[in-house]
Amino acid sequence: MSGNQSRVQAIYQITNREIKPFNSPKRLEEMWAKDVFTLSKMQECLPKDVFKSLQKTIKTGEPLDLSIADVVATAMRDWAISKKALYYAHVFYPLTNSTAEKHDGFVSVQGDGSVISEFAGKVLVKGEPDGSSFPNGGIRSTFEARGYTAWDVTSPAYVMETDNGVTLCIPTVFVSWTGEALDKKTPLLRSNAALNKSARKVLQLLGHKDIAPISSSCGAEQEYFLVDSNFAHSRPDLLLAGRTLFGRPSAKGQEFDDHYFGAIPERVQVFMQDVEESMYRLGIPAKTRHNEVAPGQFELAPFFESANVATDHQQLTMTILRKMAKKHGFLCLLHEKPFAGINGSGKHVNWSVGNATQGNLLDPGDTPHSNAQFLLFCGAIIRGVHKFGPLMRAVVATASNDHRLGANEAPPAIMSVYLGSQLEDVFEQIRTGEIKGSQLAQTMNIGIDTLPVIPKDPGDRNRTSPFAFTGNRFEFRAVGASQSVAGPLVAMNTILADSLQWIAEKLEAELNQGVELNDAIQKVLQEIMEKHGAVVFGGNGYSEEWHKMAVEERGLANLPTTADALPSLRYKEVEELFEKMGVLSPVELESRFEVYAEQYILSLEVEAKLVVSIAKTTIYPAAINYLSKLTSTMASLNNIGIKLDTSAIEKIATLVNQLMAEVEKLSEALEKEDFVDTEDHMKYFAQTILPMMNEVRKYADALEGEVDDELWPLPTYQEMLFIK
Ligand code: ADP
Ligand code: MG
Questions:
Q1: What is the rounded distance in angstroms from the CA atom of residue 168 to the CA atom of residue 439?
Q2: Do 559 and 410 reside in the same domain of the chain?
């Protein structure tokens, strides 16, 4: 189709689309966890002793008793077959942010040619998907390319029903032949174990006797954009890179704030309900939905769950959003910055730590006793974020999230902690050692019996902080919309585990010297604030002053791009942290650096190639067409004595030449192959290629403002954002 024909067609299709009303809403109980092999379903169909043994494994994380695997597998198979499943899949989470699965049939051919459905314990607990093409950062050479999946008993199996059939899905870890983690789940489970160990020590020192297993929880708020697929299909950049590489901002953007929390468009609401039904059936507690700030942008948040299950559910949520969008004629964009000039999408990761006996350890609680405990855990986090700020930046570093961080809509690339004014005041008093309790209007002594109650409301919200305390949890706001939440959770769990271990050792040493517990706690907290208080910041994180103060006065790192941030995975102290906590070996950590760096380079390379090809084959021809239309019209008018101002022709011709000169520069720059190392390669893309892409875009977008709309081939911002 030439000119704007595809756009006209798209608008015709969209405006004539029949919105199918949501088929009668079902009762929640009817849908809830219908497709999950839940504990209660297991209890129904497993012998008592088998169920008990399995339940123990789930609760304590102890290894599964292999002698029960066959019984469990048979029960799981029978349940899956009753849901019409013919296949099963070990689902795993490679170092890309995606979900991977390999399907195998239950079919087993017998000697007499008949078939039966077979699913033995050994294939339930272990699979060998090969998967040698997944990025592994050098852990596996091809000759030992075997990778194994192993059932994660703590995350329930489920059936995935699509139009193409039903599959039993088993969440698994993915490890190499030599036992190294090739995935995102293994370190998450390990980080939780490390956290359990250190937190337990601290709780014991505080006098607790009965301590249930401690684990982290996560509630991840997912932002996303919906664009009608009729438009998306005419935008190679959206299809291949997930973001617009060109596009002039529409005259109206988000400045009226009229989209935020506005009425959800009918078609989108039907989509959302379909998404939620799928989520409920899979036992994912979808809880909140609303329009977000930018036009065409929405948010979905579930109720929080244990970090491991929440992570699996988050991956499923992204899959469901994408799949359901297709069904409803949308493209769902999880990219952090699909459109220039309006807000991008994040994924706030709400995180807390707790157990069944002591409850939420980040809840200030109602009693002085729990307060001391709370201050220690909170202090541990302050220490961790300060010591490992660059790591916290690295775990949210991707090519796409770089567009968002520091772009005055999302937190800056400087890691700081927001506590709210009251809590900040408490910690400031701890730091100075002059504990008077100004804002609390009470005299304050830190100690397990004497501390006054800290108000639960942290005071005002601060949207400019990357890491904010929100009453009974921390909210890591720098996480990108398309990211797996596993990496950020691993980092938070591990730095907390490390700090708690440090605290436990300090407290123990003090107690051994005969210091009173209250005094010891106060001393440890004071030391934390003296050394690490610089990371606490309650002001405007977007401001120039903060950027200056953070770096120059407080010594915090400002790592604006992934190329700056990822190398911190190679810092000695980061390596030691992960090794000491038993979360990642140096080899595993290095492999992550390699994989993420490679992904960064590859994503920018794809984008740069797209910029060149779209500019050359789509935008340049449109501009030339317009030029020729203009010149011939002006010539004809000239023939009958009418003279038009020809400066428009010159202006457009100049823009076209500038555009093509920049395209040429970019193409040449992409030829470079000799790089010192991976870090050099990343820097080249961040500092040379990306600015060149922006230059091409500048002229292309200027042309969009000049060329006859009838000749413009790419769906515009206005169309993509406002027509639904
Ligand atoms: P807001 O939009 O104001 O940030 P929401 O009420 O939407 O807050 O909640 C954000 C997320 O935080 C939800 O997923 C919620 O379940 C989760 N959350 C609430 N309490 C906790 C907690 N203690 N630990 C982890 N996540 C939590
Ligand atoms: Mg939030």
A1: 56
A2: yes
Q: Counting ligands in written order, which one lies closest to the CA of residue 411?
A: 2
Residues 58 and 3 in one domain: no
Neighbours of ion ligand 2 (CB under 5 A): 348
Determine whether the shortest distance from the Cβ of 304 to ligand 1 is under 6 A: yes
148-157, 319-328, 432-441, 511-520, range with the lowest pLDDT: 432-441
In a domain, 352, yes or no: no
- Percent of the chain at pLDDT above 70? 93
Specify the pLDDT at position 255: 74
Q: What's the 463 CA to ligand 2 centre distance in angstroms?
A: 9
Asked if 386 and 272 sit in the same domain, the reply is no
Residues 366 and 392 in one domain: yes
Residue 469: DSSP 8-state: E
Residue 691 lies in a domain: yes
pLDDT digits (tens, 9 = 90+) for 674-717: 999 999 999 999 999 999 999 999 999 999 999 999 999 999 99
Q: Would you say 571 and 494 are in contact if contact means Cβ atoms under 8 Å apart? A: no
- Does the residue 589 lie in any domain? no
Q: Is 347 in the pocket of ligand 1 (CB under 6 A)?
A: no
Q: Is the CB of 288 under 6 A from ligand 1?
A: yes
**Which residue puts its alpha carbon closest to atom 3 of ligand 1?**
470
The yes-or-no verdict on residue 293 having pLDDT over 60 is yes
Considering its fold, how many domains does the chain have in total?
4
Q: How far is the CA of 401 from the centre of ligand 2 (A)?
A: 17
Q: How far is the CA of 716 from the centre of ligand 2 (A)?
A: 31
pTM greater than the 0.90 cutoff = yes
| Ligand 1 pocket check for 303: Cβ under 6 Å | yes
Mutate which of 222, 304, 347, 462 for ligand 1 pocket (most atoms within 8 A of beta carbon): 304
**DSSP alpha helices (H): ranges in 640-689?**
647-669, 678-684
With a 6 A CB cut-off, is 228 part of the ligand 1 pocket?
A: no
For ligand 1, whether the C-beta of 136 sits within 6 Å is: no
- The residue contributing the CA closest to ligand 1 atom 13 is 219
Say if ligand 1 is within 6 A of residue 350 CB.
yes
Q: For residue range 210-228, what is the model confidence (pLDDT) as tens digits?
A: 999 999 999 999 999 999 9
Q: Is the dihedral of CA 724, 349, 463, 336 positive or negative?
A: negative
Give the distance from CA 385 to its chain's centroid. Answer: 18
What single DSSP character describes residue 553? I
Residue 482 has pLDDT above 80, yes or no: yes
Helices (runs of H) and strands (runs of E) counted in the chain: 25, 17
Range of the domain at 624: 599-722
pLDDT of amino acid 137: 73
Given this model, what pLDDT does residue 122 score?
85
The confidence score (pLDDT) of residue 423 equals 85
356-360: list long-range contacts, CB under 8 Å, 24+ apart. 356/212, 356/213, 357/208, 357/210, 357/211, 357/212, 358/203, 358/208, 358/211, 358/212, 358/214, 360/472, 360/473
Indicate if ligand 1 lies below 6 Å from the C-beta of 472. Answer: yes
Query: Of the ligands numbered here, which is closest to the C-alpha atom of 361?
Result: 1
| Phi-psi domain of 186 (left: phi exceeds 0; alpha: psi -120 through 50; beta: other) | alpha
**pLDDT tens figures, 367-406:** 555 588 999 999 999 999 999 999 999 999 999 999 998 7
Tell whether ligand 1 has an atom less than 6 A from the beta carbon of residue 221: yes
